[in-house]
Amino acid sequence: MELHELTVLRALDALRSREVSSVELTEAYLRRIESLDHTLGAYLTVTAARARSDARRADELRRRGDDAPLLGVPVALKDIFCTNGIETTCGSRILKGFVPPYDATVATRLAEAGAVLLGKTNMDEFAMGSSTENSAFQSTRNPWDLARVPGGSSGGSAAAVAAGLAAASLGTDTGGSIRQPAALCGVVGFKPTYGRVSRYGMIAFASSLDQAGPFTRTVADCALVLGVIAGHDPSDSTALPDPVPDYQASADGELRGLHVGVPDEYFVAGMEPGVERAVRGALDTLTELGADVRPVSMPHTSYALAAYYLIAPAEASANLARYDGVKYGYRAPNANTTLDAYLRTRGEGFGPEVKRRIMLGTYALSSGYYDAYYVKAQKIRTLIKADFDRAFESFDVLVAPTSPTVAFPLGAKTADPLAMYLSDVCTLPVSLAGLPGLNVPCGLADEMPVGLQIIGPALGEETVLRVGAAYERASAWQPRIPEI
Amino acid sequence: MSTSVYEPVIGLETHVQLETKSKMFCACSAAYAGAEPNTHVCPVCLGMPGVLPVINRRAVEFTLLSGLALNCEVPDASKFDRKNYPYPDLLKGYQISQYDLPFTVNGWLTIDVDGGPHRVGIIRAHLEEDTAKLIHKRENGASHTLMDANRSGVPLLEIVSAPDIRSPTAARAYVQKLRLIVQTLGVSTGNMEEGALRCDVNISIRPAGSEPLGVKVEIKNLNSARSVQRALEYEIDRQTRAIEGGQQVIQETRGWDEDRGVTVSQRTKEQAHDYRYFPEPDLPPVFLSPDWIDGLRQQMAELPDARRERYQREFGLSHYDAVQLTSALGVGTFFEQAVALYARPKVTANWIQGELFRVLRERDTDIQELPLTPEHLVELLVLIDDGTISQAIAKQVFDDVATSGRSPRTIVAERGLAQISDATELERMVAEAIAANPQAAADVRAGKAPALGFLTGQVMKATRGKANPAVVNQILKRLLDTA
Ligand SMILES: [Zn+2]
């Protein structure tokens, strides 16, 4: 087995037994990035010098007896996380050249856990998109088929882990931006409960929905990384104060007697038959494992897309107001007045999807429309939460497809925003309810990965991980890196 | 000006910078006065990407204290909202403020003006953050703008009055009373010159006695109680003349030009902002438990109105005297410290309102700035009571103490100001005066009273005011009766 194929846990075993050093592991990843990423486009910035110094330090610490949870493991960060001294663009021209003087809390926690930073990964501009084609800089390709998208918005982080260009990575999920690319790239991706992971230093898209989480190749790796990044943060007033359980321990365990609900409404019209086949197969596996699998109705599911596309753009319209060229990032030259400077900077600095959502959000909040749009969308959000509350009275977890389709060809949906929005139809309700959602690969359809979504109640990460791990052990699917 | 036929309807929005240690949503020091530009800043108050606000609990408490002092109601829960508008001094592109669920609502304060205590309604007192400061410069023919973010994120209390004010003097009294309350609570310096208290006023006029309101004009950023009064006087005159000239007053925002003494149009209603308020998703709601509120109520300083009532009750002062003693920060405390040592409240009150207020007015200063202590005043009053000095001399001594801070007794001794009460000494001087003024002495004997005053005056003059006039009078009468 080659070094880049090691899971995080295997890599840690090898590091602990001195079979391999962090420097060797890091060099293997850097070589692989060097040889493949010009094809794949997963990284926006490769921090090779930082990675080498992190690796040397990790080896030195290990020699001195340190055994931090990720000591010496090479990871990547979505370019939405601010990194002290390292350019952070959020996939946007408007932040080209922006070098934050501070670290996101998750970046600090990874560093404190001994992780080695390989670089910053590509994303849809300001996390707005489902294919990573909205990046201002490059497209990322799906490692399973270079003609297809990796999903989005965390497409770079998903592709990097899927292709063996990082042992693990972090992404963010506002309406599905971790789970959908994880499904399309055949990796594990977890959006935790809203507030489980600090948002400090994570560039805001929709503050009431944004949540960071890991991409890994196995559920056990996911549990380990989540344990490192989760927990209260005094810098984020929406971060939950609840103690962080031992997620690795909870990933072990049986499913006998577990009540699993399958929401009918997630098997939408237009779902690809291969996807449905793979997901139904996974449900059979859960039954075989002793779980009690039954259908459940979530009647407000079909309103989630409309509600999401009012709430998220409304919050985004305010969150993105600070990018005006005055303080940092891109500033249009030759403006004559303040208004002219704003119009030109934002006109040239933002891409079409970002502009579309700013306009949508501004409209939804405008005097005279606020009640009809924003307030109504919040009411729908409450009804969707109530659907989940009711379901979790009878079920321990809900299981559904993550995406109705496998990865689609590059360019297939770029001209049709609504078709692109529908990619997230199975993940949006979970985001609106603020619940944990885990994507676990559950087979292939047309040679492309299919994802199973496991949804838990608020702070139900342990149960979700237990179901994911049990399924992973029993399933025919074994984590593998495709030939590129 | 024919304002008598028109009645002004005035409301104020007052912004008060809260004197907390740190800013509203970050750990930066809020005490930026005099600091180098952009030295009290961090990623949060600079509005950098990805950063998040954290509520300053003390700022919330200062807001609640202010609201309680203004007799407001406190709801069970409150929240913050985003107020969206683009301007370079607003670093996030939105201001964290409060919209439909402010910390405190429905209160009032009283002002003593236009014939007696009037109640002015307080619609709300809420918490928000201050903006950065833009500095416009012109150098070598080119203009540019610099930004100082030290003020960005300083907690700002906004107090909105009901349109209950009916005259520019009442508006001025309202501002002064509000300032006194926040100073008494210790939540703000209330320093208007430094911008710690700023006012926007709304004014419309209507024919006296009519019910419907006229067209409202807003005057922004008035930074002294005097400007509030002057701007309103100007605006009432302008609107009256417009209406009488057959023109319409248009709804707009105007600025106050202090130097020219005029208001100037800034923007009309058509250009007004749509602030697109919505709940701040980065901050959880704030729950205001009864225990928390009761605790704050208990730690609240005695307010001017309560103190005034106590002075009337405890010291038997008139309403007028009590208002005077409680209308400026520190005066009441000075009075109470003096009365604790000297049991004649009315005499003490008279001296404070007479001599102390005169000195403060003449020197344009505050009581805290004077070296004069309550102990000094008491010593002076005792010197009068025991006949050591006359009232007239005491006023001279008072001025000296207020300048030098030396004790009255020392001043009297060093300057030789003690009254001459020694009967033999005075008798000799009275005899001299009678000898020098035989006509006046004859007049006294003939029963002409003014002549007695004249002779007393001569003795006082000869002693440069140091003679005890009562004793002089006695001796005069005795010598002239027996002569
Ligand atoms: Zn700050």
Blueprint (SSEs and pairs):
The complex is a heterodimer of chains A (484) and B (483).
Chain A: H1 8-16, H2 22-40, E1 43-46, H3 48-63, E2 74-78, H4 105-112, E3 116-121, H5 155-162, E4 168-173, H6 179-185, E5 188-191, E6 211-216, H7 219-229, H8 247-250, E7 259-263, H9 273-288, E8 292-296, H10 304-319, H11 338-349, H12 352-365, H13 371-394, E9 397-401, H14 417-421, H15 428-432, E10 437-445, E11 448-455, H16 461-474
Parallel strand pairs in A: 2-3, 2-4, 7-8, 7-9
Antiparallel strand pairs in A: 1-3, 4-6, 5-6, 5-10, 9-11, 10-11
Helix pairs in contact in A: 2-3, 7-16, 10-12, 10-13
Chain B: E1 6-17, H1 57-69, E2 77-78, E3 81-84, E4 94-97, E5 104-112, E6 117-129, E7 133-139, E8 142-148, E9 155-161, H2 168-185, E10 197-207, E11 217-222, H3 225-244, E12 252-257, E13 262-268, E14 278-279, E15 286-287, H4 290-298, H5 304-315, H6 319-325, H7 331-341, H8 345-363, H9 374-385, H10 391-404, H11 408-414, H12 423-436, H13 438-445, H14 449-462, H15 469-482
Parallel strand pairs in B: 11-12
Antiparallel strand pairs in B: 1-9, 1-10, 2-15, 3-4, 3-14, 5-6, 6-9, 7-8, 10-11, 12-13
Helix pairs in contact in B: 2-3, 5-6, 7-8, 7-9, 9-10, 12-14, 12-15, 13-14, 14-15
The site of zinc ion has 8 residues of chain B, from loops.
Number of helices of chain B: 15
**Total helical segments of chain A:** 16
Can you say what the CATH homologous superfamily of the domain at 3-258 and 463-474 in chain A is?
A: Amidase signature (AS) domain
**Secondary-structure element series of chain A:** HHEHEHEHEHEEHHEHEHHHHEHHEEH
| Poorly predicted tracts of residues of chain A | none
- What percentage of residues of chain A falls in helices of 4 or more residues? 25-40%
* Secondary-structure content class of chain B: alpha+beta
Question: How would a crystallographer describe the biggest sheet of chain B?
Answer: 8 strands, mixed
**CATH hierarchy class name of the domain at 3-258 and 463-474 in chain A:** Alpha Beta
CATH fold-level assignment of the domain at 3-258 and 463-474 in chain A:
Amidase signature (AS) enzymes
What is the β-strand count of chain A?
11
Major sheet summary line of chain A: 11 strands, mixed
3D shape of chain A: globular
Kindly report how far apart the N and C termini of chain B lie. Answer: 68 Å
Beta-strand residue percentage of chain B: 15-25%
Strand order of the largest sheet of chain B: 5-6-9-1-10-11-12-13
